[in-house]
Amino acid sequence: MPGIANPIVSTAEVQTVTVDATGGTFTVTWNGATTNAMAYNVSAATFTTAMDAIADGTGNVVVTGGPGASGGGTPYTLTWAAGRGNVPAPTTNPALLTGGAGAAGVATTAAGGSALADPWLSVGAPAEPTESVVPDRGDWQWCMMEVASWMAGEAWSDDPANVSPVIAQLCKLLNDRLLDDSRQDLKDWLVVAPNGVIDTVDGTKEDDRQLMCTDWLVRTFLPIWFNAAGMTDEADELAALPAIATGTLDADETIAVVAAAGMTARAVADYAWSDLDWASLPGDGRADHPLTGEYFPFLWPDLVADYDHAQLELAQRCARGAGYAEDGTDDGQEAWNTARRAARLAAWDATGLVRGLLWDSTRADPSPWLGVTGGTDADEDTVGLAAWQAARDAIMATVTNGRLARETYDVYEVRFAAWLAHLEADPGENPFTAAYNAAVASADAMLVATAASVFTSLSDLLDDLCAL
Fold first, then answer.
1. Sign (positive/negative) of CA torsion 378, 382, 387, 390?
2. Does the reported pTM lie above 0.90?
3. I need a labelling partner for 314 at 20 to 30 A (CA). Which of 69, 84, 185, 444 fits?
């Protein structure tokens, strides 16, 4: 394996000193300086102190192990600070050692390396970066895979020859979906396998890796979203599907279960949007409707704290079917319809959480998500596309049925949030824009924890793919 030619993290030099003696003393010389004489069985702490005196200051090297003995005993290990990079090996003078072989041998067990770049991962660029020949914070054009190419000493590319094609596609998806600060965590995987993505190319493992991705997609990713929507039966059914592995994938069964779960989620979301006339607002006594029943009374104390009391009284009057205007000339239906349209748009936009992760990646070559009957060129036949549709509908159900809002009473369900924002829109402010922005904030609040769980599980998946 070629390993890393251009490191982005400094690595520590590790050396050993094996003392084969039963008495006497020895010295160590490094960079022209020599320690005081040390007993053949010197303690590691005393050895460290002796090295501090010759190694350009305290803390540059730590000695562990020992003591020496006939046959070599336990070797002393000298671990240099990573920032020192490649460190010349010390020499020893064993002339005063007695017994045993009377020797103190030195060996380098891990060569240190100095970081040659300090990359700041970005979404990359369609062409080779021009500002710098190395990835650093001064050039934000480098994505994770472009840095991997540079580290391996390859020509610039976002398809490095040293990274498994399936792993590379997954890394590109993560790189492009994460926010700037979170994206930097991907640098933890820019190390050699099995702990990282570099040197993971093995043609005999690519099918297995693709199947591992598909298994995660169906039995981990989808249940996360269906549980968030309160659809635990569907989540359990997806998680209980047989593990997807070489020779065991039942394409028809997998797509059928995924599609059925998605259809149920769409039905839940559609019901939440159906029959939403003015009479269905909070306070009208329809306990079976997501926006009514116990939801509004529990919200009232917080609403009084957050909103103008007179505005809320007006809202209550509207909720009971009274006029929106003081003179009763407007029944409020137009205002509610406007807020509902804004909320539905915000709910749909929230499904972008999975669009780039799944929909776009069904066109990747290779797709991390297995094309089960027609390959990556037939989107309608891929597990990835079926999962994208099901996850999209689960997100719609999550943000429109108000389950999380009703459980916590501290997150306004998207339509209710839009309606309140519409009611209190400032003069001259576009009420639709105010309603949409409030609905987006509500959806984000309900989805943020679930999205974090998804990316945590993706990190675990990446670990498993690298270790295969």
1. positive
2. no
3. 444
